[in-house]
Amino acid sequence: MKSYIQAVQANQNLTFQEMEGAAGLLFNDKTDEKEIAVFLKSLAQKGETAEEVAALASVISANAIRPEFPEVSYIDNCGTGGDGSNSFNISTASAFVMAASGVRVAKHGNRKISSAAGSHDVLEELGIRNDLTANETTAMMEQCGIAFLFAPNVHPKMKRIGAIRKQIGSPTIFNLVGPLTNPIPLHAQYTGINRKDFVMEYASVLTMLGRKRAVVVAGAGGPDEATLAGRNTLVLADRGDLIPFTLTAGDVGLQPAGLEAIRGGDAACNAAIIRSVMKGQRGPQFDTVALNAGIGLFTEGIVRTVQEGVRLAEDSILTGRAKHKLEETAAFCQQCTDRVVVL
After folding, report:
1. What is the pLDDT of residue 154?
2. What CATH number should be reported for the domain holding residue 286?
3. Within 13 Å, how many C-alpha atoms sit on residue 200's CB side?
4. Residues in contact with 30: Cβ distance below 8 Å, sequence separation at least 6, in sequence order
5. 165 annotated to a ligand binding site
6. Which DSSP helix (H) or strand (E) runs through 333?
7. Which residues bind anthranilate 1 (predicted)?
């Protein structure tokens, strides 16, 4: 690890292969924790490159526990988080809308880290468990067309790194790799970051990791979601081509709204917001979910434009399909609970 630390402290960018070697040492229990902390802090001070992020993500994914999903097309819409916006769980709500619109969603996520409620905190409030076995997770996908992959379950080797990150107390490269480490081979990915300056690089990372199509967004006002609050910055990665574009609410027929309109609270509060959206209650919360689900549908390629995606997302909510998808997934988890009780 010392040679990698020296290179990074000399302001040298690591190659993909070098970062793979460093990542192997990060997950080696024999590597000194202080050296790991110095490496991560030095890397953050230098500034992470696309190659470094992609290499670390590939090593984490290779060491993950992978449910055996059928070999078909999957999309994830997990963002990096850490944007400090205190919004409700937009990507979680959007995942149900996307699944109800006909795409298979393999959503990666975790409990709260810097927010009041992480995706799996609010999922519990919605009746969806995070302690399913790999076989049950596969069955959820086959039955519901959506499955939730709880990061601690699929990345057991991350536990030690998590403790080191807490000791560091400032952002590291691991704040960028979360959405990139889904153990399921993804055809497409829609993700958000709160670093407008890194959107193009992040899109190139997704290409390196084998995504056929991907969209990265830095939301107007700072969130890692597309918002109604101004001009969102995006990049489409389409089979190796990187295409930057911007998008406002008005571009897709939605009304502008400030970030205060999508603020959430704890898991119970956010679950209540998601339920109200699924019931078709119109307003900025509904529109923000429709916007992000629409971008996700465009990313997967089942619609030609984001505007078509937004209209399809709205229809999935207003016809009750999204609400049914949420209820179907919760009912599946209840069946798993019932089996445990019987045993």
Report:
1. 85
2. 3.40.1030.10
3. 7
4. none
5. yes
6. helix 321-342
7. 79, 110
* Annotated binding-site residue? 309: no
316-340 average pLDDT score: 89
pTM exceeds 0.90 for this model: yes
Q: What does the pLDDT average to over 276-289?
A: 98
> 184 a known binding residue?
no
Query: Containing H/E element for 151?
Result: helix 151-154
Q: Is 35 a known ligand-binding residue? A: no
Consult the annotation and say whether 108 binds a ligand: yes
- Residue 125 banded pLDDT, cuts 50, 70, 90: very high
Amino acid in position 92: T
CA distance 83 to 7: 30
Q: Is 238 annotated as a binding residue?
A: no
pLDDT of the residue at 220: 96
> Is residue 324 a known part of a binding site?
no
Overall number of domains in the chain: 2
> Known binder of ligand: residue 29?
no
Residue 167 lies in a domain: no
| Residues spanned by the domain of 24 | 2-62
Burial class (CB in 10 A: 0-12, 13-18, 19+), 139: middle
The answer to whether the annotation marks 243 as part of a ligand binding site is: no
Q: Annotated binding residue at 92?
A: yes
- CATH number (domain holding residue 57): 1.20.970.10
CA atoms within 13 A on the CB side of 230: 9
- Mean pLDDT for 253-280 is 95
